[in-house]
Structure formats: C-alpha cells, structure tokens
Amino acid sequence: MAREFLGGFELLVLLALMKLGDDAYGVSVAQEIEASSGRRVAVGSLYLTLKRLEQKKLVSSRHGEPTAERGGRAKTHFSVTGKGVKVAAHAQRTLTTLWSGVPRLQGERA
Amino acid sequence: MTARAPRVATWLLVRFSSGPQGEAIAGDLLEQYATRNSRVWYWRQVLSAIRADIVSTVRNNRWRTAVAVALGWVAYVATSFPTTWLVHKLRLITQVWLSDVDTEWFLWTLRAESTLIIAMVCIAIGWSVAKASQRSASAAVCLLAMTLMIFEFGMIALFFANSSEPARALTTVEWATAALLVLSRPAGILLGGLFGMRPGAQPTSAVTRLGSS
Questions:
Q1: Which residues of A touch B49 (CB under 8 A)?
Q2: Measured in Å, how far apart are chain B's first and last C-alpha atoms?
C-alpha cells in the first residue's frame, strides 16, 4: 500500500475530526480548528479538504437529519476511518522524529 | 433578531456546486449566519466556496472542462456569423420604424437591440455548454465566460488603440457602451449556464460520493 502523505490543513482537519468524534460536521470542525490554531477557516475550503480526505479513504461521511436552523438542510457527519487513524499516527511519528532532531526548537522548549 | 441570509447567495452556492456537498455547505453557512449575522461574511463564504469548487472541478476534470470550453468557443464563433446577419437585418427594419426619432435615441435603440440579440445567443450557448458538460458544468461555464470577457475586453482595447481619432478621454456614454459590450456576452453565458446546470451534479473523478460510505 502506498503511503499517504497529508498536507498541513489536511492534518489539522483529520485531528479535529478525531477529537470531535462521530458528531463532527462542517461547523464543529471549523470551530475546533479556529479555536486550536487561531486560523480562520472558510467552509468551502474545509469541504474541499474533507472531500479529498474521503477520496483517499481516510474519512467517511453520512447524512444526518435536516433541521430548521439550517434551512431544512441535513448535516453531513464525518468520521475518521481506520486508515485515517494509521496515517495520522504515522504523521505524528514523523513530525516527532523531525522535531526531536531540531536543536533550536529543543532549546526554545527548554 | 437575526436577518434572513441572502437567498440569492444560497441559490448560487447550491447551483454552482459540482457535488451534493453544496447543500451541506449551505446548511453550515446558514447555521453560522444565525450567530454572525453578517451579509458580507456570508457572501464572502459563498464566493470562496464556489471558487474552491470550481478550482477542484477543473483539477479533477481537466479534459472534460477543456473540451466543454472549446466547444463553447466553437459555438460562439459559429453563431457570430448568423447573429451578425440578423443584427444587420433588424437594424434595417429598425431604421424604417424609427425614422422620425432623434439620432441619439435611434443609436441607443440599435445598441440595445444588438446587445439583446447577442446576449440571447450567449444565453443559449451557456445553457448548451452546461447541459453538455453536466459533471463539470459550473467550471466550464465560468471559464467560458471569463475567457470571453478577456477576449471582448481585448477587442475593445484594440479598437480604441487602432482608432484613427485623436486620443481623448471617453465620455460616460462611451464607457457605458464599452462596459455593456464587454459584460453582456459573459453575463449571457453565465445566465444560460445557471439555468442549464443541474444542482449538485457529481464529478466523475470523485471516488467516493459523500454520504455513501
């Protein structure tokens, strides 16, 4: 199996989905990323990334019930697949290894 | 009290979305609008979502989009000859009808008449391109309109550059006429495309449909 590599925003989305669990949907994911990174998230870009992650089979989705506050539109709930968890774990290992080998960052942490 | 979100923006978002996620994005934006209550924010989000969707569609359906835009151009060039003939024929009839009105009114009637006919032809082309390229319709229609606008702008600039008249500042009427000529064609393509598009058509390259897994 070819190793999947994640972009910076893809990793943020994947981690936000893992943190939020099964109830994750567009708004909650955007709020989670904004709260943890301070980065403003455009909903269109978020869905584009979610679609890409779904094409890579790292994320799956299901439709919820339509609600009045959403103009009668259903939520699309997203969850991380087993493959998604493995890819996120691999990204964590890679980043940790790289970070531990950067003396300047180690000095700042100390 | 929360004001109602701009309905035109929501309609455009769902219409221009190439996949079923258009409805989900619209729902998310409506939900956030209830707390943010900013029309500017809403429009920016909608335009950003449409742009992101078009870029993604072009990337995933390069050939389909390119062929659709090329076919649109072929149709535009092919229809330009009968359209020009029709405009000239109608101009002759209009000249007979409006022989008594003053020159300024007469010229504006001719401009409006030709612009209307050309816009109608462009609406038909936009509709056909959207129908023919259903899966990448929004991207094809937008690209066709954009290239047409650049072309028309170039033609107008060329006309003024090669004009034998000495250079002078344009009057408001001349600016308005030039803007009408440049914008009427792409606007016609977009309008026709909007009505030809099926909302939420899914591009073929999407491996997994949202909600199917």
A1: 42-45, 47
A2: 39
